[in-house]
Automatic annotation (TrEMBL):
UniProt protein name: Glucosamine-6-phosphate deaminase
The enzyme's E.C. designation: 3.5.99.6
Pfam families: Glucosamine_iso (PF01182)
PANTHER family given in the database record: GLUCOSAMINE-6-PHOSPHATE ISOMERASE
GO biological process terms on file: carbohydrate metabolic process; glucosamine catabolic process; N-acetylglucosamine catabolic process; N-acetylneuraminate catabolic process
Keywords: Carbohydrate metabolism, Hydrolase
Family indicated by similarity: Belongs to the glucosamine/galactosamine-6-phosphate isomerase family. NagB subfamily.
Functional note: Catalyzes the reversible isomerization-deamination of glucosamine 6-phosphate (GlcN6P) to form fructose 6-phosphate (Fru6P) and ammonium ion.
Pathway(s) annotated for this protein in UniProt: Amino-sugar metabolism; N-acetylneuraminate degradation; D-fructose 6-phosphate from N-acetylneuraminate: step 5/5
Active site, renumbered: 67, 136, 138, 143
Catalytically driven reaction(s): alpha-D-glucosamine 6-phosphate + H2O = beta-D-fructose 6-phosphate + NH4(+)
Species whose genome carries this gene: Cytobacillus dafuensis (Bacillus dafuensis)
Amino acid sequence: MKIIRTANYEEMSTKAAQFMLDRIQTNPELKLGLATGGTPKGVYKKLIEDHKQNNTTYKNIITLNLDEYIGIDSSNLNSYHYFMKEQLFDHIDIPSTQTHLPNGTAKDLLEECSRYESLLKKVGGIDLQLLGIGENGHIGFNEPGTPFDSTTHLIELEENTRQANARFFDTIEEVPTHAITMGIASIMASKEILLLASGEAKAEAIHKLINGAIDESFPASALKRHENVTIIADEEALKLL
Ligand code: F6R
């Protein structure tokens, strides 16, 4: 795993956007795996700025997000569908038919998991997957204990994950208890992975990722078996290394 150290969140976002733009320029038909949460917001802002200044086009890009809450409609402000539109899709020229997220309100959720996993294969696999990391080492919503051979599946969110995400909701009760997420195997099938981490709250997770064992109790540790992972993280997130 290659580590790129940055001074702060701003620089992490700039470097990550440059990294992604480099891949988009090399392959204008890139299949791009995306993440939500606080970490990638700055990157999306930079991509939007670049789109306005340099006209980088996303007309032939296909995006596939990692996850979505269960039971929250795409028009709900807290859904990841809404987040992605607001933070990125509405501000670049990507056709909406080329942006994909799991449907957390599908009637048959198991069927939805298979549909999404097949979609990953149908598009030819993800070229570059952007990841954040949970304080407990989750990637996507793969909580500790998720099998490394898991594909897109339903998951019950850990209490600390719900608490960490409660900042986006009015009350903790509103945070969904379940989500649909690409599995560890789905993520590992990506040709390249870019993991971002910022802030002291992620320092322990990054320390464990770099120095700890490869074990299902720490989902991100699976990434050590991937041959093309880059971590861009700021000083605070790297402070225990
Ligand atoms: C989001 C996702 C999660 C987040 C992680 C970190 O799509 O899959 O794994 O990347 O929970 O979240 P933030 O960036 O809010 O600290």
